[in-house]
C-alpha cells in the first residue's frame, strides 16, 4: 500500500462509485463518489472517505453500527440527516456523530439541486456489524465479513 505523507487534493484520488448493497437498495445510492483518504494515507485503524452525493441520492440505507463510531462532516452543499428523531438539515460546516452500539439508524439524503460533499470518518473494527431498522437487510460480521443478508440470515 502506498502511504501518502504529503498534502493531497482529494480529487487526485480515484473515485469509487460502486456499492456492495444488493438490489433493490444499490440503485438508491449509486453513483455516489467515494475517495478513500484513509486508505491512501496508509491508515489501518481509521477510515476516512471524501464523498460526493449527487442530488436525489442517499448516502446509504438507514443503519447503525455495533462496533464502529461514525462521524460525517459536511464540506459543501446540504444534506438531510434522517434518524429516529426525524429529519434535519446538515449544511457546510456542520457535522453529526453516531456512537457504536447506539441503535438509532442514520443516513443522509441529498434533496437539493447541487452535489453535496462530506467526510465520513470511522474507526475500523473487524467485529462490526450493521443493522438496518427500516428494511430487510443486515451486514454480517465477523465470520461473514462483507456479506449482506436478510434479517433471518438468508443470503441475497
How is this structure best described in words?
The protein has one helix at 37-40, and strands at 33-36, 46-53, 64-65, 70-76, 78-83, 86-91, 95-98, 107-109, 116-123, 130-131, 138-140, 147-149. With 156 residues, it is mostly beta strands. It has one domain (14-149): Jelly Rolls, CATH 2.60.120. It is globular, with a radius of gyration of 15 Å. The model has no long low-confidence stretch (mean pLDDT 92).
Uncertain segments of ≥5 residues (pLDDT<50)? none
How many H/I helices?
Answer: 1
Structural class: mainly beta
Radius of gyration: 15 Å
Q: Please provide the count of β strands.
A: 12
Topology (elements, then pairings):
Layout lengths: L32 E4 H4 L5 E8 L10 E2 L4 E7 L1 E6 L2 E6 L3 E4 L8 E3 L6 E8 L6 E2 L6 E3 L6 E3 L7
Antiparallel strand pairs: 1-2, 2-9, 3-10, 4-7, 4-9, 5-6, 5-8, 10-11, 11-12
Keywords:
single chain, 156 residues, mainly beta, Jelly Rolls, five-stranded antiparallel sheet, four-stranded antiparallel sheet, 3% helix, globular
Summarize the structure.
The protein is mainly β. Helix content is 3%, strand content 36%.
Amino acid at each position: 500500500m502506498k502511504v501518502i505523507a504529503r498534502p493531497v487534493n482529494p480529487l487526485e484520488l480515484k473515485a469509487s462509485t460502486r456499492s456492495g448493497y444488493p438490489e433493490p437498495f444499490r440503485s438508491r445510492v449509486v453513483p455516489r463518489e467515494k475517495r478513500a483518504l484513509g486508505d491512501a494515507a496508509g491508515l489501518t485503524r481509521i477510515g476516512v472517505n471524501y464523498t460526493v452525493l449527487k442530488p436525489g441520492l442517499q448516502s446509504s440505507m438507514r443503519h447503525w453500527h455495533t462496533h464502529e463510531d461514525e462521524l460525517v462532516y459536511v464540506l459543501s452543499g446540504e444534506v438531510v440527516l434522517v434518524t429516529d428523531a426525524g429529519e434535519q438539515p446538515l449544511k457546510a460546516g456542520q457535522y453529526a456523530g453516531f456512537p457504536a452500539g447506539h441503535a438509532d439508524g442514520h443516513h443522509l439524503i441529498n434533496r437539493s439541486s447541487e452535489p453535496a460533499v462530506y467526510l465520513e470518518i470511522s474507526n475500523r473494527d473487524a467485529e462490526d456489524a450493521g443493522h438496518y431498522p427500516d428494511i430487510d437487510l443486515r451486514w454480517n460480521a465477523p465470520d461473514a465479513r462483507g456479506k449482506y443478508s436478510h434479517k433471518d440470515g438468508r443470503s441475497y
